[in-house]
Amino acid sequence: MNAKTIATPETGASGSRHRTGSSSALVRTGLKLLSAGPVVILIALIILLSFLSPYFLTGRNLSNILSQTAVIALVAMGQHIVILTRGIDLSVGSNLALASVVGALVYQGTDSTVLVVLAMILSGGLVGAVNGLVYVYGRLPHPFIITLATLSIAKGLALELSNGRAIQGMPEFVRAVGGGSIYGIPGSLFVVTGVVVLLLVIAKTMVWGRWLYAVGGRPEAALQMGIPVKSVLISAYVISGLCAGLGAVLLAGRTDAGSPLFGNLLELDTIAAVIIGGASFLGGRGHIGHALVGAIMIGVIRNALNLLNVDIFFQLIVIGVVIVIAVEADVLRNHLEGRMRTLQAVGKS
């Protein structure tokens, strides 16, 4: 005679909780894998490329990667702040070009290193302020519009001021920071590290950092909480502009020139770096490390393709494919987070 298990409300609830707990564990594991994915992929790339090319892990090549990646990483950190607020800054490349030209022109009129550096940084910050102010007080539906406009305006100004050509000459300090090294470590790396530390301190220890995530996560709720949303948004674009100005200092130092042709497609590189690193276009979620990881990954991929003699046009295809994969990973992460919230709600009921 077969014994039958009698299902009681208690056993039914227990079984439901067990299934919910198992599903929650699987979803949590998936989220952790997605979060660690960019770092894991970067490590795997470095290991693979060390076997494919004997030159990849040489000190000279690694220094070259860091030097070439520094500008993207620096500007991507500002882009990251903007994306945290559900925005985008398409003007960073033209902003950098304009700042480099302004710095070169200031250097022609004065020998002051301080004035040259300040001119580039403030030029970048001014363009960022215009983006933020017009977006907020012009009540534009999306920052795409104004940053696309300033992309064209800044590029036109850079071409006009420089007569369409590169202007040679930068102070010795700028050349040392942008193109020099200390014990084989690029000077630009110290600038990037300093900016990372500064932004981390601001984001983690100041109330502005919490406001930034709140505005990006739930703008309507942030307004109801009394957060100065307009000021936070404007400050995000100013920071993005300042990072572009600092990027101009590094690039002008590395090339000993200011040029209206600098920064071509830099906006795409920085957006790609932020998204590849694991941040979300939906805003309110991300870490400054995401921009760094993404920038390094782009630098490693391009360097590897050069070492392997891959056609330069094919490199654009590779970067595009990586961006698509990163965006799909973001979609999957949002789905898993929604699933996690549902399971938690079921578990509590």
Oligomeric grouping of the chains = single chain
Secondary structure: number of strands: 4
Inertia-based shape? globular
Helix fraction by DSSP (H/I, runs of at least 4) = over 70%
Q: What is the SS-derived class?
A: mainly alpha
Largest sheet: 2 strands, antiparallel
Order of helices and strands: HHHHHEHEEHHHHEHHH
Give a brief outline of the structure.
This protein is an all-alpha fold and 349 residues long. The chain is built from 13 helices and four strands. A hairpin with a 2-residue loop joins strand 2 and strand 3 (185-186).
List keywords for this structure.
mainly alpha; globular; two-stranded antiparallel sheet; 13 helices; disordered N terminus; 349 residues; single chain
Describe the fold and architecture.
The protein is mainly α. Helix content is 78%, strand content 2%. The strands form 2 sheets. Strands 1-4 form a two-stranded antiparallel ribbon. Strands 2-3 form a two-stranded antiparallel ribbon. α2 (59-84) packs across α11. Mean pLDDT is 84; it is low at 3-8.
